[in-house]
Design goal:
It comes from Ferroglobus placidus (strain DSM 10642 / AEDII12DO). This is Transcriptional regulator, TrmB. Residues 89-116 form a coiled coil. This protein is an alpha+beta fold. It has a domain at 5-86: Arc Repressor Mutant, subunit A (Orthogonal Bundle). Helices cover 62% and strands 12% of the residues. It has five helices and three strands. The protein has a three-stranded antiparallel sheet with strand order 1-3-2. β2 and β3 (79-84) form a beta hairpin.
Length: 120
């Protein structure tokens, strides 16, 4: 599955909101497919395996992704399957809330700075 223009724009906006670009790509892809394995993410998001692993580690730390092992037939390591724990809407709402809090703090700090130097 390829990324559409809308998907690319979503990745761009998530990145501008403070997410790492690889994390944004993984989030958008997972929101479209539901559950998938690392190799599919690599192909669709045009990422290398280590980039997907790093993104997944961070997404799990944020509580936005969970994984499970899928046993393979025969020998070899089991595959890991990944899935979002929240809707993309909820993740975006969380990001927006945090950014708005940062903006409010910055505005307060700028006002204090202006007062301290006599601009206001």
């Amino acid at each position: 599955m390829e990324f559409t223009e809308k998907d690319e724009r979503l990745v761009e906006l998530l990145t501008e909101a403070g997410l790492n670009k690889n994390i944004a790509k993984v989030l958008v892809y997972l929101s479209k497919v539901g559950e998938t394995v690392s190799r599919d993410i690599e192909r669709a998001a045009n990422l290398r395996q280590p980039e997907v692993s790093i993104a997944m580690k961070e997404l799990k730390e944020m509580g936005w992704v969970k994984d499970r092992e899928i046993k393979k037939k025969g020998k070899g390591r089991p595959l890991k399957s990944y899935k979002l724990t929240l809707d993309l809407k909820d993740i975006v709402a969380e990001l927006v809330r945090k950014k708005r809090e940062e903006i409010q703090k910055l505005e307060k700090d700028l006002e204090e700075l202006e007062k301290l130097v006599g601009l206001k």
